[in-house]
Amino acid sequence: MRFAPLVIAATSVALIAPTAAQADSPGTRTPAAPAVSVPGGRYEQAVEVRFQAERGTTVRYTLDGTTPTRDSSVYSPGRPLRITKDTNVTAVAFHGNRSSVPVSYGYLIKTREKPLARLVVMSDVHVGSHKDADKKYESFFDTIGSVFPRPDAILSNGDMINDNGDGKGPDHRIVSEIFQDNLARKGMTGTQLLISNGNHDASLAAIRSGYPAAWFPDSGGGYYESEVKGLHVLTVNTETYDSDTAQRGWLKKRLAAIASDPANTGRPVLIQGHRPTTGTTMDGQQAANPRLAEDLSAFPQAILFSGHSHLNVNDDRSIHQRDFTSVNDGSMSYVEIDHGYQMVTENGLADRFETPTAQALFVEVYRDRTEIARVNMAADKHDIYTGGKWSANWQPPYASAGTLAGSTWTVRLKGSTNKEIKKNFRYTDATRNTVAPAFTTSRPLSRVDGAKGGTALRIAQARDDQMVHHYTVDITDARTGAPVVSSKVLSDYTFMPRPNTLDIPVPGAVPGGRYVARVVAVDAYGNASPAASLTFRG
Fold first, then answer.
1. pLDDT tens column, 336-380
2. Measured between alpha carbons, how far is 164 from 108 in angstroms, rounded to an integer?
3. Which entry of 302, 398, 410, 538 is 20 to 30 Å from 262 by CA?
4. May I ask the CATH class of domain 117-431?
5. Which helix (H) or strand (E) holds 73?
6. Separation of CA 470 from chain center
């Protein structure tokens, strides 16, 4: 595995081997991916990164999440890259007309200030066998250890297994074995494991019988309170919350008591519950439990973590503040995108809202703020379908393990009244991003031959201050005005690195026929670039 336990105070110059290599074709010489001197992870100082590649190759790199090309910056041996802020570094080795696979490394650069607590928040594990999960979770725990060598707690927020009323409750024991083996392997003997109930977890009894009692210490209703390094962590059962008056009463009573204690001023109350509540993250897709939002509305100190929807954490709509803070967890099995879009696949444009990407949150609670880092466990580019069959079971090694899925979110709870605290909220509807994407070249569209023959429209991806979410693509027949393609095409933003171009097939294009393309880049908030246009022949 690429990630080893991280010594934060110093960096090593020993080269770390990449996790993937491109297979040689007969009669060609494909270079191996570059090795890196400093593994990705969390550091308390700037780091200097060196690459090494095969003799005769040239290493090129990017620092913005894009895939290096022959026009990207050249790495000069002896002149290390100095990383002073949170960054994804991606490198490719070039030799003649061949190139290695890209390898990416995520660096979180902190100060020497010590947090009160460090927690990993994950959800939607969906494990069903050792065969499919053992190697994946070795890689995932290696990634966890590269950021938090000794996390104070891991919150696993529901759907540990994939029971659909079909008797898979005993699978919890498989998850327990996998987690316990990896905690021991990584030396995380002091790490608390706290589980919530999800809709695919069979039953509360199945959870209780599958794990050590300390991992799910409920008193009968699937909800409970824990303490992590003096921090209050409340686990709710979102499968019953709205109708469970006892649970609602317990949560409100505990929140009121915690909020009234001066010792807790400025500190968050962390809450995990499997399903998101209404009107919060990502427009509440797959949300439930409106009474949970109602009950939390009086407590701006609350940070609610939720899974279930699998909605990716690349999108800044995955954090939301109004009366409290709500955060999507992503997913450890596969992530989703809001519906209504298409992706470019090997078989052309296809309706897709899922990708085999695994993500988790790394939470550091300080005296005056909570920092939430978004980290990919695996974000290599793959379709969710393999050979026409749906599958999220891509196995390691992952060339993208440990990369950052976005900038760190910071929650500040300064103030002595609810109104004062909410003045510091920065992820509200009123403060959302208004910057539109922009194409960075005067000719972002071009006509190319499709991967499987025929004609395709190539889009050179636009840039945005957060991320380009999708492109509206309209292609018409210049002679008749009839539409040929009309689609919203996702930018592949969940992958690391992101592809630099998207090739949109033009079905039925007639050789010599004239076509007109109009493309607009759009971010997650609907901010749109000026249209790019191209007239081309089939």
1. 999 999 999 998 999 999 999 999 999 999 999 999 999 999 999
2. 38
3. 410
4. alpha beta
5. strand 73-74
6. 17
